[in-house]
Amino acid sequence: MNFPIALQLYSVRDDMERDFEGTLKQVKDLGYDGVEFAGLFGLDAQTVRGYCEKYDLVLISAHVPFTDMINDPALLETYAAIGCKFVVIPYLTEEYRPGSPRFQEVIDGARVLGEKAKELGMILAYHNHDFEFTKIDGEYAIDILYRDVPAALLQAEFDTCWVKVGGEDPAAYVRKYNGRVEILHLKDFVGAKTENMYALIGIDEDEKKDTQGKFEFRPVGSGVQNFPEILKAAEECGTKWIVVEQDSPSMGLSPIECAASSIRYLRSIL
Fold it and tell me: Is this prediction's pTM over 0.90?
Protein backbone atom coordinates (compact mmCIF):
# COMPACT_ATOMS: atom_id res chain seq x y z
CA MET A 1 0.00 0.00 0.00
CA ASN A 2 1.27 3.43 -0.88
CA PHE A 3 -1.26 6.14 -0.14
CA PRO A 4 -0.46 9.84 0.03
CA ILE A 5 -1.52 11.17 3.44
CA ALA A 6 -3.25 14.49 4.11
CA LEU A 7 -4.17 16.20 7.37
CA GLN A 8 -7.59 17.75 7.91
CA LEU A 9 -6.51 21.12 9.28
CA TYR A 10 -9.50 21.27 11.61
CA SER A 11 -7.34 18.97 13.72
CA VAL A 12 -4.90 21.87 14.32
CA ARG A 13 -7.36 24.75 13.96
CA ASP A 14 -6.11 26.75 16.95
CA ASP A 15 -2.55 26.50 15.66
CA MET A 16 -3.73 27.62 12.22
CA GLU A 17 -5.50 30.60 13.76
CA ARG A 18 -2.33 31.65 15.60
CA ASP A 19 0.22 30.94 12.88
CA PHE A 20 -1.19 29.91 9.50
CA GLU A 21 2.07 29.63 7.60
CA GLY A 22 4.09 28.18 10.46
CA THR A 23 1.52 25.45 11.07
CA LEU A 24 1.51 24.45 7.39
CA LYS A 25 5.32 24.16 7.59
CA GLN A 26 5.01 21.96 10.68
CA VAL A 27 2.47 19.73 8.90
CA LYS A 28 4.89 19.32 5.98
CA ASP A 29 7.80 18.65 8.34
CA LEU A 30 5.79 15.84 9.96
CA GLY A 31 5.68 14.13 6.57
CA TYR A 32 2.17 14.90 5.35
CA ASP A 33 1.73 15.07 1.59
CA GLY A 34 -1.37 17.23 1.51
CA VAL A 35 -3.96 19.14 3.49
CA GLU A 36 -7.71 19.46 3.70
CA PHE A 37 -9.01 22.85 4.80
CA ALA A 38 -11.94 23.67 7.09
CA GLY A 39 -12.10 27.42 6.73
CA LEU A 40 -9.54 29.83 5.27
CA PHE A 41 -8.84 31.85 8.43
CA GLY A 42 -9.63 35.14 6.70
CA LEU A 43 -7.10 34.70 3.91
CA ASP A 44 -7.80 35.02 0.20
CA ALA A 45 -7.52 32.21 -2.31
CA GLN A 46 -4.23 33.39 -3.80
CA THR A 47 -2.52 33.60 -0.39
CA VAL A 48 -3.72 30.15 0.68
CA ARG A 49 -2.66 28.59 -2.60
CA GLY A 50 0.72 30.31 -2.36
CA TYR A 51 1.47 28.92 1.09
CA CYS A 52 0.52 25.40 0.04
CA GLU A 53 2.77 25.65 -3.01
CA LYS A 54 5.60 27.07 -0.90
CA TYR A 55 5.56 24.04 1.39
CA ASP A 56 4.76 21.53 -1.36
CA LEU A 57 1.44 20.49 0.19
CA VAL A 58 -1.29 19.28 -2.13
CA LEU A 59 -4.51 21.10 -1.32
CA ILE A 60 -6.67 18.08 -1.93
CA SER A 61 -9.99 19.30 -0.54
CA ALA A 62 -11.91 21.68 1.69
CA HIS A 63 -14.88 21.28 4.03
CA VAL A 64 -17.49 23.96 3.34
CA PRO A 65 -20.84 24.13 5.17
CA PHE A 66 -23.83 23.03 3.11
CA THR A 67 -25.90 26.15 3.81
CA ASP A 68 -22.97 28.44 2.93
CA MET A 69 -22.66 26.83 -0.49
CA ILE A 70 -26.42 26.78 -1.10
CA ASN A 71 -26.81 30.44 -0.11
CA ASP A 72 -23.77 31.52 -2.12
CA PRO A 73 -22.87 29.04 -4.90
CA ALA A 74 -20.15 31.45 -6.06
CA LEU A 75 -18.28 30.41 -2.92
CA LEU A 76 -17.21 27.30 -4.81
CA GLU A 77 -15.27 29.53 -7.19
CA THR A 78 -12.99 30.51 -4.31
CA TYR A 79 -12.08 26.90 -3.66
CA ALA A 80 -11.58 26.25 -7.36
CA ALA A 81 -9.20 29.22 -7.44
CA ILE A 82 -7.26 27.76 -4.52
CA GLY A 83 -6.82 24.55 -6.49
CA CYS A 84 -9.03 22.13 -4.54
CA LYS A 85 -9.89 18.91 -6.32
CA PHE A 86 -12.73 18.19 -3.89
CA VAL A 87 -15.19 20.37 -1.99
CA VAL A 88 -16.92 18.53 0.83
CA ILE A 89 -20.20 18.91 2.72
CA PRO A 90 -18.86 18.38 6.25
CA TYR A 91 -21.70 18.43 8.78
CA LEU A 92 -25.44 18.98 8.92
CA THR A 93 -27.10 21.05 11.59
CA GLU A 94 -30.09 19.40 13.23
CA GLU A 95 -32.78 20.86 10.96
CA TYR A 96 -31.16 19.21 7.90
CA ARG A 97 -30.44 15.80 9.37
CA PRO A 98 -32.20 12.54 8.51
CA GLY A 99 -35.59 12.39 10.17
CA SER A 100 -36.22 16.06 9.43
CA PRO A 101 -38.27 17.12 6.40
CA ARG A 102 -35.33 19.30 5.32
CA PHE A 103 -33.09 16.30 4.72
CA GLN A 104 -34.65 16.18 1.25
CA GLU A 105 -33.20 19.67 0.71
CA VAL A 106 -29.75 18.19 1.30
CA ILE A 107 -30.34 15.53 -1.36
CA ASP A 108 -31.68 18.07 -3.85
CA GLY A 109 -29.00 20.59 -2.96
CA ALA A 110 -26.23 18.04 -3.39
CA ARG A 111 -27.30 17.55 -7.00
CA VAL A 112 -27.17 21.31 -7.64
CA LEU A 113 -23.82 21.75 -5.87
CA GLY A 114 -22.42 18.67 -7.58
CA GLU A 115 -23.20 20.18 -10.97
CA LYS A 116 -21.67 23.52 -9.97
CA ALA A 117 -18.52 21.83 -8.67
CA LYS A 118 -18.24 19.81 -11.86
CA GLU A 119 -18.46 22.98 -13.97
CA LEU A 120 -15.53 24.38 -11.98
CA GLY A 121 -13.41 21.26 -12.39
CA MET A 122 -13.98 20.00 -8.84
CA ILE A 123 -15.81 17.05 -7.30
CA LEU A 124 -18.41 17.37 -4.54
CA ALA A 125 -18.15 14.87 -1.69
CA TYR A 126 -20.06 14.22 1.52
CA HIS A 127 -18.44 13.63 4.91
CA ASN A 128 -20.67 11.60 7.24
CA HIS A 129 -21.17 11.55 10.97
CA ASP A 130 -23.15 8.90 12.81
CA PHE A 131 -26.59 10.46 12.32
CA GLU A 132 -26.68 9.43 8.65
CA PHE A 133 -26.95 5.87 9.93
CA THR A 134 -30.52 6.60 10.95
CA LYS A 135 -32.96 4.44 9.01
CA ILE A 136 -35.75 5.90 6.88
CA ASP A 137 -38.26 3.25 5.79
CA GLY A 138 -35.72 0.57 6.61
CA GLU A 139 -32.81 2.14 4.72
CA TYR A 140 -29.90 4.12 6.10
CA ALA A 141 -30.07 7.81 5.22
CA ILE A 142 -26.47 7.68 3.97
CA ASP A 143 -27.48 5.02 1.45
CA ILE A 144 -30.51 7.04 0.36
CA LEU A 145 -28.27 10.04 -0.26
CA TYR A 146 -25.83 8.05 -2.39
CA ARG A 147 -28.67 6.27 -4.18
CA ASP A 148 -30.52 9.47 -5.08
CA VAL A 149 -27.50 11.56 -6.06
CA PRO A 150 -25.36 9.91 -8.77
CA ALA A 151 -21.69 9.21 -8.22
CA ALA A 152 -20.84 11.61 -11.05
CA LEU A 153 -22.14 14.43 -8.83
CA LEU A 154 -21.36 13.20 -5.31
CA GLN A 155 -18.48 11.17 -3.96
CA ALA A 156 -18.26 9.60 -0.50
CA GLU A 157 -15.70 10.85 2.00
CA PHE A 158 -16.37 8.26 4.67
CA ASP A 159 -15.29 9.18 8.18
CA THR A 160 -14.23 5.82 9.57
CA CYS A 161 -14.84 6.83 13.19
CA TRP A 162 -18.41 7.90 12.61
CA VAL A 163 -19.20 4.88 10.46
CA LYS A 164 -18.18 2.65 13.35
CA VAL A 165 -20.00 4.77 15.93
CA GLY A 166 -23.04 4.53 13.65
CA GLY A 167 -22.93 0.76 14.05
CA GLU A 168 -21.28 -0.36 10.82
CA ASP A 169 -17.89 -1.71 9.76
CA PRO A 170 -15.82 1.00 8.03
CA ALA A 171 -13.97 -1.43 5.75
CA ALA A 172 -17.25 -2.97 4.66
CA TYR A 173 -18.68 0.45 3.83
CA VAL A 174 -15.67 1.36 1.73
CA ARG A 175 -16.15 -1.89 -0.19
CA LYS A 176 -19.87 -1.25 -0.53
CA TYR A 177 -19.07 1.98 -2.37
CA ASN A 178 -16.16 0.60 -4.39
CA GLY A 179 -14.89 3.29 -6.74
CA ARG A 180 -16.78 6.11 -5.02
CA VAL A 181 -14.41 6.75 -2.10
CA GLU A 182 -11.45 8.65 -3.56
CA ILE A 183 -10.72 10.33 -0.21
CA LEU A 184 -11.10 8.54 3.11
CA HIS A 185 -11.02 9.99 6.62
CA LEU A 186 -9.01 7.97 9.12
CA LYS A 187 -10.06 8.73 12.66
CA ASP A 188 -9.57 6.70 15.82
CA PHE A 189 -11.39 6.73 19.14
CA VAL A 190 -12.11 4.88 22.37
CA GLY A 191 -15.34 4.65 24.32
CA ALA A 192 -18.94 4.46 23.20
CA LYS A 193 -21.55 6.75 21.73
CA THR A 194 -22.81 9.33 24.22
CA GLU A 195 -25.56 11.93 24.19
CA ASN A 196 -23.24 14.92 24.16
CA MET A 197 -20.54 13.42 21.97
CA TYR A 198 -20.45 16.34 19.53
CA ALA A 199 -19.04 18.59 22.22
CA LEU A 200 -15.69 17.06 21.32
CA ILE A 201 -15.85 18.23 17.71
CA GLY A 202 -16.09 21.85 18.78
CA ILE A 203 -19.88 22.10 19.11
CA ASP A 204 -21.64 22.86 22.42
CA GLU A 205 -18.37 23.51 24.21
CA ASP A 206 -20.19 23.88 27.54
CA GLU A 207 -21.07 20.20 27.37
CA LYS A 208 -17.49 19.00 26.91
CA LYS A 209 -17.13 18.00 30.54
CA ASP A 210 -20.06 15.60 30.16
CA THR A 211 -18.34 13.54 27.48
CA GLN A 212 -14.79 13.34 28.78
CA GLY A 213 -13.88 9.78 29.72
CA LYS A 214 -16.86 8.27 27.92
CA PHE A 215 -15.90 8.94 24.32
CA GLU A 216 -12.51 10.22 23.25
CA PHE A 217 -10.85 10.84 19.91
CA ARG A 218 -7.38 9.34 19.65
CA PRO A 219 -4.42 9.58 17.26
CA VAL A 220 -4.70 7.03 14.47
CA GLY A 221 -3.53 3.66 15.76
CA SER A 222 -4.22 4.48 19.42
CA GLY A 223 -7.86 3.43 19.61
CA VAL A 224 -10.25 0.69 18.55
CA GLN A 225 -10.11 0.88 14.76
CA ASN A 226 -8.75 -1.91 12.55
CA PHE A 227 -6.77 0.28 10.19
CA PRO A 228 -4.90 -2.49 8.35
CA GLU A 229 -8.27 -3.86 7.23
CA ILE A 230 -9.64 -0.40 6.42
CA LEU A 231 -6.57 0.40 4.32
CA LYS A 232 -6.77 -2.95 2.56
CA ALA A 233 -10.36 -2.13 1.59
CA ALA A 234 -9.30 1.35 0.45
CA GLU A 235 -6.58 -0.13 -1.74
CA GLU A 236 -9.01 -2.59 -3.29
CA CYS A 237 -11.60 0.10 -3.99
CA GLY A 238 -9.54 2.82 -5.64
CA THR A 239 -9.09 5.30 -2.79
CA LYS A 240 -6.59 7.96 -3.85
CA TRP A 241 -5.98 9.85 -0.58
CA ILE A 242 -6.22 9.07 3.11
CA VAL A 243 -6.90 12.00 5.42
CA VAL A 244 -6.06 12.07 9.13
CA GLU A 245 -8.52 13.90 11.35
CA GLN A 246 -8.70 14.24 15.12
CA ASP A 247 -11.37 16.66 16.24
CA SER A 248 -10.03 17.06 19.76
CA PRO A 249 -6.57 16.21 21.17
CA SER A 250 -6.13 13.51 23.81
CA MET A 251 -3.63 11.39 25.73
CA GLY A 252 -1.92 14.53 27.07
CA LEU A 253 -0.74 15.49 23.58
CA SER A 254 -1.15 18.79 21.76
CA PRO A 255 -3.03 18.81 18.44
CA ILE A 256 0.20 18.86 16.41
CA GLU A 257 1.64 16.05 18.56
CA CYS A 258 -1.49 14.00 17.86
CA ALA A 259 -1.00 14.62 14.13
CA ALA A 260 2.62 13.47 14.49
CA SER A 261 1.57 10.30 16.30
CA SER A 262 -1.00 9.49 13.61
CA ILE A 263 1.39 9.76 10.70
CA ARG A 264 4.10 7.79 12.50
CA TYR A 265 1.65 4.94 12.95
CA LEU A 266 0.47 5.09 9.34
CA ARG A 267 4.00 5.13 7.95
CA SER A 268 4.74 2.05 10.06
CA ILE A 269 1.98 0.00 8.46
CA LEU A 270 1.87 1.33 4.88
Answer: yes
